[in-house]
Write a structure and sequence with these properties.
The chain has 128 residues and is an alpha+beta fold. It contains 7 helices and 4 strands; from the N terminus they run βαβααββαααα. It has one domain. It holds the Pfam family DCC1-like.
């Protein structure tokens, strides 16, 4: 395991990369923010399928969270200002709505600002 948490995203997706750049510039997390294509997935205990499905948070103890739970973990790690949205994502009614919203965004990310057609394809079909 690593001494710092790791936030893993899809580096082939422009929308995801734009979000990761926002995290790096604006959210004071201790986490290493890395595209899964350049991460040692075995060392992190992740699979390609997990990373293609959702962003991933790997804590120093190896605990893994995905999608909105990963985002909540990242925000929680960022400190006081970010505790409010982190707590909101952990609140049961919000958490119940967060996953369907996350899946919708993930399925439509190619249509969102910064998205490209490559965002809509599974990894196996992106570099043909």
């Amino acid at each position: 395991m690593t001494a710092t948490p790791t936030f893993v995203y899809d580096g082939d997706c422009s929308f995801c990369t734009t979000c990761a750049q926002f995290i790096e510039r604006r959210i004071p997390t201790r986490a290493r923010v890395v595209p899964w294509q350049f991460a040692d997935l075995d060392a992190l205990g992740l699979t390609t399928d997990q990373c293609e499905e959702a962003v991933q948070w790997v804590s120093p103890d190896g605990t893994v969270a995905a999608g909105p739970d990963a985002i909540a973990a990242l925000l929680h790690d960022a400190g006081r200002l970010w505790q409010v949205p982190a707590s909101a994502l952990a609140f049961s009614p919000v958490r119940a709505a967060a996953w369907p919203a996350y899946r919708w965004i993930a399925e439509h990310r190619h249509l969102l600002p910064g998205g490209t057609a490559a965002c809509s394809l599974p990894q196996a079909q992106r570099n043909l």
